[in-house]
Amino acid sequence: QVKWKGKDLFDLVCRTLGLRETWFFGLQYTIKDTVAWLKMDKKVLDHDVPTEEPVTFHFLAKFYPENAEEELVQEITQHLFFLQVKKQILDEKIYCPPEASVLLASYAVQAKYGDYDPNVHKRGFLAQEELLPKRVINLYQMTPEMWEERITAWYAEHRGRARDEAEMEYLKIAQDLEMYGVNYFTIRNKKGTELLLGVDALGLHIYDPDNRLTPKISFPWNEIRNISYSDKEFTIKPLDKKIDVFKFNSSKLRVNKLILQLCIGNHDLFMRRRKADSLEVQQMKAQAREEKARKQMERQRLAREKQMREEAERTRDELERRLMQLKEEATMANEALMRSEETADLLAEKAQITEEEAKLLAQKAAEAEQEMQRIKATAIRTEEEKRLMEQKVLEAEMLALKMAEESERRAKEADQLKQDLQEARESERRAKQKLLEITSKSSYTQSMNSSTTALPTDLPSFNLISESLSFDFKDTDMKRLSMEIEKEKVEYMEKSKHLQEQLNELKTEIEALKLKERETALDILHNENASRGSSKHNTIKKVS
Fold first, then answer.
1. Sign of the C-alpha dihedral, residues 147, 153, 154, 160?
2. Residue ranges of the alpha helices (H) in 73-130?
3. DSSP characters for 38-69?
4. What pTM was estimated for this model as a whole?
5. What fold does the segment set 64-175 form as a domain?
6. What residues form the annotated binding site?
7. Domain 183-272 belongs to what architecture?
8. I need a labelling partner for 479 at 20 to 30 A (CA). Which of 72, 235, 363, 514 fits?
9. By the 8 A CB rule, do 167 and 111 touch?
């Protein structure tokens, strides 16, 4: 509405978002190439806003926390900071080294896509995502597929993290970047030398124009007694009166007003952090702790249900596999039984034929014997006839002997076939008994399978458990939660060490693909700082 003040518009935005940690945020607009923030106690249209309609304001974080994990209470606050910091890194307003860019990208993917699933997140699923600064992509001779492979390798390790946890991990890494949360302004000292003034949650910092990573001088908020400006001249008075007053000039009066706004806001938050929390913040933190504990218990319950369901499915699959195995065994036993029956029938038929052949041979032998007797009785008396007769007798005797041997052999073969028939019938009996056993096992397995398969449908209910849960957490619950938090701290320290090793490994791995001629000034400065072992916090401490 026309009469609305800045606070009315700001409160409406915060209510719409459900945001309670309003002190970090503001409504930003641009006027004559200079950034400005909407004043809460001044009418919106009384500001020097652009005249064209619609008037555009950007809802952004104006002040940054020193420690995101400790200070950002609401999930919506964390999410808004995550979106803003991520955009600043991708737009290269915050310098981020290549290996850290890959790690941050993996947390951004976890926040958006949830747990990695190779069946869903197939090669090329990140092709349309903007995850790395263009400076990092241009610095190496690497294809998009190679970058995706390295991002996905870390993404797979973040399994089990919810969206808010992944976003918080992103912020915890980003807050240690040198340019995180710093507002830079071009200034000149009394000698006219051009410098940069940086304002952030820790204090005021003076930089060389070519080096936004490492400050030359720092003034922590607790060591500043007074900040003031007159026209374009700005004065910083240290708490220690022995230290000289630092004066500098800015290009515009509007810039001086903005610097003073940021100084006052950051100083107020710096002092507030070192005092006991207000009642509102205490209430918010208590609610956040309860909500976190509730979500953790819910995640544990879902994890248990998932585990039980997976175990039930594994058991069902095992029983189905066993059932199929038993069916195969039964089929094989049936086939063996049929083969045994066929063999027994063949042996019986062969034994009968052999027995008949033996009878026939015995009959022929008897006939031969009778013929021999007849020949002897009617033998011709001549020598020639006698000789022929003797030869015939000899042949008849040999034939009779052969037939007797053949008859005996056939008789033995018949006995052997009878014995084989007995063994075949015994095998048939054993096969029938085994088939009966397998049939009884199969029926038992089917009953077990039907009862097990029914398990998953009952799993999600857990009515008794859910009815007994209460949102009034007892001391024992909070003690248990405290123990879990301590355990998480230890695990985090170990993981940080592991993380640093992984970052160094990735840096070493891609170093060979780097195009040295494409390194920016900030890349070179960062490498120099890294080789000296310098970090954001120890550098500020050293130059304070």
1. positive
2. 75-90, 98-113
3. --TTSBGGGS---SSSS---EEEESS--SSHH
4. 0.65
5. Acyl-CoA Binding Protein (1.20.80)
6. 39-42, 257
7. Roll (2.30)
8. 72
9. yes
